[in-house]
């Protein structure tokens, strides 16, 4: 992260006196990350990471530290928190809640291979399964409700193009039944900068501070959008397939997950577009603040939308064919695909939406321009 709260050497020495970690030899602020203040700490007995939590409550932190211990006990390579002399995992420094964890070996990977994406997909599925025996639950702090509220707060500050995109995406997101999707404890922020690799294996899963109870596949979508993309934001099929297959070899998807996968990929891009936009428009103060680019996720969202779009051009066909053409085009489509039907028959403005509603799809827009009629639908279930 960025260092929001500076810590002097003598303050750190006093803090470390409460831990069985020996005497301080060196420490340095970590510039990666955006949420908390982190330091690498070297003592006479080992290497550690000190985190000062910038906005979480002690209750939430109790959840995160207990989860780290739970996942570590289950063999997941997360950093194990160190108890102080009183047996507490959570302490205080500079008036902020603070914790000391073991520093893990390994390096971040900028350009993962399909094999590394598969390795990560496997670990993510194991984390989801291990999470089933973790009995505490925490609501998502960047979940659907947050996305809707944040969008409405930021919309007036966006230019027309971005505002139109954001508004349309929020409308689409309302069609996803988030509460019905198979859910459990998820990491919710498993980007490349939160994973360490050593000798081709995952050696560290870091930064569980967005972990919560949410849709498992949304967690995989977050991974996919960071690990399996080309520079332009489009998905790299080889990496995406490797990651999904490895995940499913441990935990196969349920039918509802198959159906809403495309929508969850979009939800996961929207989440990070919004959080980065928010951080840009409402910056926090501190030293070494790292600001991540919102446009990266706006572009990813555009690619996910385009990948989930079908256009039906029925302009040369006669009434009542537009509905049949839409039906044909939609055959076997999963939910979350947007269908734009263009026709010259004014009856299509009524017939296509009526057909769509019967089949559980959502009509996003109907408009007419001269003698051309456009209907935009969102599939809500396999047709
Ligand atoms: N236990 C650890 N072992 C090794 N390196 C670590 C450890 N914890 C953190 N780091 C390093 O510090 C960086 C920042 O940590 P972390 O991701 O937890 O910060 P954050 O501010 O919460 O970040 P984010 O922006 O990802 O939410 C990591 O990317 C990693 O390089
Ligand atoms: N991983 C996030 C930052 C922390 O939530 C991002 O890249 O925007």
UniProtKB/TrEMBL annotation:
The first-level EC class reads: transferase
**Keyword Transit peptide carried by entry:** no
Q: Which pathway does the protein contribute to?
A: Amino-acid biosynthesis; L-threonine biosynthesis; L-threonine from L-aspartate: step 4/5
The UPF0033 domain extends over 312-378
Biological process GO terms, please? threonine biosynthetic process
- What reaction(s) does this enzyme catalyze? L-homoserine + ATP = O-phospho-L-homoserine + ADP + H(+)
**Which residue range or ranges hold the Aminoglycoside phosphotransferase domain?**
28-253
GO MF term (any one)? homoserine kinase activity
Q: What is its EC number?
A: 2.7.1.39
Record's family? Belongs to the pseudomonas-type ThrB family.
In its UniProt entry, what is this protein called?
A: Homoserine kinase
